Amino acid sequence: MAFEGLSEKLNETFKRLRGKGRLTESDVKAGLREVRLALLEADVSYKVVKDFIARVTDRCVGSDVLESLTPAQQIVKIVNQELTELMGGSNARLATASKGPTVVMMVGLQGAGKTTNCAKLAGLMRRQYGKRPLLVACDVYRPAAIKQLQVVGQQLDIPVFEMGQGDPVNIAREALKYASDHGNDIVFLDTAGRLHIDEQLMDELKSIKENIHPHEILLVVDAMTGQDAVNAATAFDEALGIDGVLLTKLDGDARGGAALSIRAATGKPIKFVGTGEKLDMIELFHPERMASRILGMGDMLTFIEKAEQQYDEKQAKKLEEKLRKNRLTLSDYLDQLEQLQKMGDLSQIASMLPGGLGKSFDASQIDEKQMVHSKAIIQSMTMKERENPQILNASRKRRIAAGCGLEVVDVNRLLKAFEAMQQMTKAMTKGKMRGMGSLMGGMGGGFGGCTINLVKDELYDNFIATAKKRFNEKYGHEPKVYEVVISDGSRRLE
Fold first, then answer.
1. Of 94-103, 179-188, 295-304, where does mean pLDDT reach its minimum?
2. For the chain, does the N or the C end have fewer beta carbons within 10 angstroms?
3. For the chain, what is the HEC assignment?
4. Lowest-pLDDT choice from 30-39, 58-67, 87-96, 432-441
């Protein structure tokens, strides 16, 4: 997981600061020394770290922190703000054409994932913005480069324009004519890469730029190469003048030094990040959200966005009605498993939960193969068996196990898990496990001994008062309440 090591070290440092209560200037400086070491260990360049710590120190040793009732929280707030600025401040979008198709020129070294992420980005543009993308095969040197682009294009149902091993400039020119004639409003040029930066590569890219005039030049770099990614970004920017960076394999880089260094080193923003091997695992890069993840504050906005992409309102209403009547079936269970899988890697989803909730939700303990097995078992059942699992006798279980290639013990395990979920929903409908999210028109969910609640402004005061009262009546003390602004850069209110 990206930034895992950095996140753990920073949170340990802030935990020690919180334990001190009131802080002296020496406490702050000692804490920031730990922050500096954590950043250097994360492979952030020395100059970037030096400048970052200098800015944070200037703000932290002032009266606003030392005289604050919660100085450690103030330091976290300052570090969060400076991390956000270090990575670009806010999300930078692709430039678009005012007339005709938008042309995005994808450049980079071989092995960075340029061709695959070219298709990923085209898929994202269609999925989120309703664009009609066209992929263009301008890499005429690498063996099977054209075929690779055609394969990923076919998987995403995105058209690919190619003219074989011809002149890349001419291919790009003809592709634009094709896009105009066929209604494609965004064109992605998959250009040739090299194993290293050389004059021949740059001359060809400059020729395409001068003749085609792309609206956006996007550099694809591999996050796992660390500072080499920063060096490549600097070299391409000096030679070509890039507009932004697509950082691939961020999920495989536990340090995150490239993401923290590129903007500071080049002045060019990271616009997109690849978060996995699947063709839908690409997202807009939000510096404020990434800073929140690094500091253990979670990323609820991205979490909500991922959930909304898989959210079916009609299906949700049906499920709600079944939950009220305690009529949850194995078909419903199957639907929930499929929606959970569509949201992506469970460890990534867990990292978006705030306040250390991601750690309490240990995704590593969830066997994704088990989820596949559960789906296979349910799919081997008849509709009658899914609706009435109590009819599953020994002979039916043996048939189901044989049908999905598993054992009877696996069928029994699934039925036991489903029964436990039924008991839980039954308790909830009877009010025995009622969460605060159901109060006063709020919407919420429970995680690891706490609830997250989304409440309208006009209902907020009454909601908090009621929640505190009911909690106190049941447990004999008031709950801790953390007010959070839900926006780009969600943060705790001081």
1. 295-304
2. C
3. CCCHHHHHHHHHHHHHHHHCCCCCHHHHHHHHHHHHHHHHHCCCCHHHHHHHHHHHHHHHCCHHHHCCCCHHHHHHHHHHHHHHHHCCCCCCCCCCCCCCCEEEEEECCCCCCHHHHHHHHHHHHHHHHCCCEEEEECCCCCCCHHHHHHHHHHHHCCCEECCCCCCHHHHHHHHHHHHHHHCCCEEEEECCCCCCCCHHHHHHHHHHHHHHCCCEEEEEEEHHHCHHHHHHHHHHHHHHCCCEEEEECHHHCCCCHHHHHHHHHHCCCEEEEECCCCCCCEEECCHHHHHHHHCCCCCHHHHHHHHHHCCCHHHHHHHHHHHHCCCCCHHHHHHHHHHHHHCCCHHHHHHCCCCCHHHHCCHHHCCHHHHHHHHHHHHCCCHHHHHCHHHCCHHHHHHHHHHHCCCHHHHHHHHHHHHHHHHHHHHHHCCCCCCHHHHHHCEEEEECCEEEEECCHHHHHHHHHHHHHHHHHHHCCCCCCCCEECCCCCEECC
4. 432-441
Residues 139, 179, single domain; the answer is yes
- What's the pLDDT score for residue 157? 92
CATH number at 230 reads 3.40.50.300
**409 and 466 co-located in one domain:** no
Mean per-residue pLDDT for 77-106? 82
pLDDT, tens only, 320-344: 565 555 667 888 777 777 766 665 5
> pTM, whole model, 2 decimals?
0.60
Greater confidence (94 vs 359) lies with 94
Name the more confident of 434 and 163.
163
Domain with 9, as residue range(s), is: 4-86
| Buried/exposed code over 447-472 (b: 16+ C-beta within 10 A; e: otherwise) | beebbbbebeeeeeeebbeebeeeee
Read off the pLDDT of residues 411-433 as tens digits, 9 standing for 90 and up. Answer: 998 888 888 777 766 665 554 43
Burial class (CB in 10 A: 0-12, 13-18, 19+), 421: middle
123 and 268 both lie in a single domain: yes
Does residue 95 form part of some domain? Answer: no
Residues 144 and 283 occupy one common structural domain: yes
Q: Are residues 215 and 175 in the same domain?
A: yes
Among 248, 271, 296, identify where a domain stops.
296
Q: Are residues 80 and 123 in the same domain?
A: no
pLDDT at 69 over 80: no
